[in-house]
From TrEMBL:
InterPro entries: DUF5685 (IPR043740). This is DUF5685 family protein. Pfam families: DUF5685. It comes from Pseudoflavonifractor intestinihominis.
Amino acid sequence: MFGYIRPCREELKVRELENYQAMYCGLCQVMGKRCGFTARMLLNYDFTFLAMLLSPPDPRPSTCMRRCPAKLFLRKKCTCASGPWLEAAADESVILSYWKVQDSMADGGFWERLGAGALSLLLRRGYRRAAAARPEFDREVRLQLETLHRLEEERAPSLDRTADTFARILRAAAPKTGNETEDRALEQLLYHVGRWIYLVDAWDDLREDVAAGRYNPIHARFGGREEEEQDYLRTTLLHSRNLALSAFALLDRGCWGPVLGNILYMGMPMVEELVFRGCWKEMKRQAVLGIGPGSTRQN
């Protein structure tokens, strides 16, 4: 995934920020335990959002003290304790990361392909473990990425068709609880967040893709008519965010509700505005929006 889904830190209460960081660290621990140390290198804020969504609606998170592999000589950190929901988020995160690496190997430049190939080898064993644990999710990811590759090869001029493929991948990450209303709401929330991620990323990469001659669905749709591109993107992104918020209103996520609400109501609009202003990548490089352990880790 891409690192776009993060909270607005300044609007989080101290306890909410501590809970978020505990989830971030807990997911890192579980990814390393289940899929190997390399998997931890791929942790980002999008996956933390997924872990919170999959978590049970407890009034307080279950935590424990663990050492951080990046800061072994410092005191232990408070992390969320492992559970089936955190294991599911870890496995799905590794599967998504592995196939994103494969995509970079297919579409990137020489040095990008070289780096992606090395990372793919390091991640392969962990991916196989995760895919064995979540075969249905792995199959859906493969299916939708194959569809997306066909659309890219055709240089499809449709934003909806291409965005739909990635949205379906995230929707497949929703577990079945047996509660029809909750299952439907969670699927819709992840679907529209996935659609939003795909379109924001397409705009973020638009100039680089056009300069390199790579396919970009926005350019294929509008052919460089920038004013039309922005107007349409702003409208359809707002539509997806509103539908995600409507689905979120039907969910109870206990102690994670305030942080998730912060992300959906404030974090996503904040990131979207930075992307449209063209300063998102620079702010990421400078770790201006860092919120991970020590507020320095940036994915």
